[in-house]
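[Q] Does anyone have a clean structure-token version of this?
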Amino acid sequence: MPTISNHGFEMHFDRRGEGQPLLLLHGGLGTGDDWRHVFDVDPPGWSLIVPHLRGHGRSTMPAGGFTFRACALDVIALLDHLGVRRVSAIGMSLGAKTLLHVATIDPDRVDAMVLVSATPRFPDSLRAAAGAFTREALARLSDDERAFLRGRHVHGDRQIEALYDMTRSFATSHDDMAFTAAALARITARTLIVHGDHDHLYPVELAVELFRGIPRSALWVVPHGGHGPIFGEHAAPFAAAAIRHLAAGSAQE
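[A] Here you go.
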């Protein structure tokens, strides 16, 4: 897996396939390998760019910690390193929030994107869940739970502690995820918003707010879907719909 030095940390990524560039951004406490559970085979006609975001998986956490804006700047730097000026993208939860920043920092960078379980801001439901990621909660993990995390995040227990600290910080973060209608209006990417109607972290009303704010957007509310409704039984229909949306291109204009 290739690595670049990026904003004070080592960023691991995978690049595979031939065709148009497609950026895949995983969710919080996940890794780029999670997309294997969505696409059982790589979609043909696409050159995949699959990073492990800062602090996750094989990538290290920089001394400055984690913000979504910083994570977006990491992604832009990776695309610059690869010589990719324009990209299609799919982001899930943490990855979707990162994509919102990419698409507002550099609107011309993203041609089309799919936002899964995204939000313009942190509601009380998320803040309560994030606040529970304490060091005490980490210490109470079972041996199997700890082994699972160690298998995904390969830099040891300090990395896992940093990821818990990252998640807990969302409980008191107010300026990192604060997308106004004016900010969303800057997005030029054709956007598909995918949201579960039973998302316990982000009420579906927040997906509607994104839909109202992003000019060229469509909204797919997944019936009986929870947070990140793209795995298991949802994987195949999501993969088909996402690739169809990204491939529509000028035919949809």
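[Q] Thanks! Anything notable?
[A] The radius of gyration is 17 Å.
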